[in-house]
Amino acid sequence: MIRQPPVIFAASYLGPEGHGNDLTGLRPWPAQLNGAFQQGNLTELHWSLVFASDPGRFSRMDLMSRLGLIAAELLDAGLECLAPERQDRIGVCVETCTGSLATDLRFLQSPRASIFAYTLPSTVIGEICIRYHLRGPVLCLLTPPGPEQSSLAEAVHWLDQGDAEACLCVGSEAVERESAGLLPEGFCPPQWHACAVLLGNATGKARQYPLTGNQSRNQSLAGMCRNLCRDAKHAC
Hints:
The protein is built from ten helices and eight strands. The protein is α+β, with helices and mostly antiparallel strands. The relative contact order is 0.24.
């Protein structure tokens, strides 16, 4: 039996150029914030810029978790509405190059327990799972810059092995202006951004995009999400 390649059910992206998903396309940030966001000043990046209601936990999260959670919410995939037995079968895989560097800097400046909780890059997984009640396999990958798709490769492995029926892959780079200056000389940090895809096996529904081998090898997760959002296929 020939196994069909997995498909992307939804994709989202936010970065200096705007925010959106594969249905809405990329929407620009408010004009008064565009310059600051382009320069990596993210003090005004709040949930209310994108959504109407603010999660109670959001205000105390670190930047990496905020970015990852906004990207997951932008998918508009209805994960929180799934039956509990299906939520048990959805994995979460986060990939990041710069990790929790911005929070590590804050903790060095002000060592408080509330900040320490976010000095692990994997904390964003907990925030995502709490919001959407997901209880499948989880993994946080620290990846080098480049097009390699570590989270997608792991998600495909989970699907192939039957460990999950779908996987939420999230990329989050919390590169603020201050933290970018701490990176090693010669290291070219990515621009701040977050992105997400919901990956699973083909179902025949309209809103899905095949994950090809060339695509997964030659594009970064963020690049793939950005392209899908720019295309805005309006499949539904």
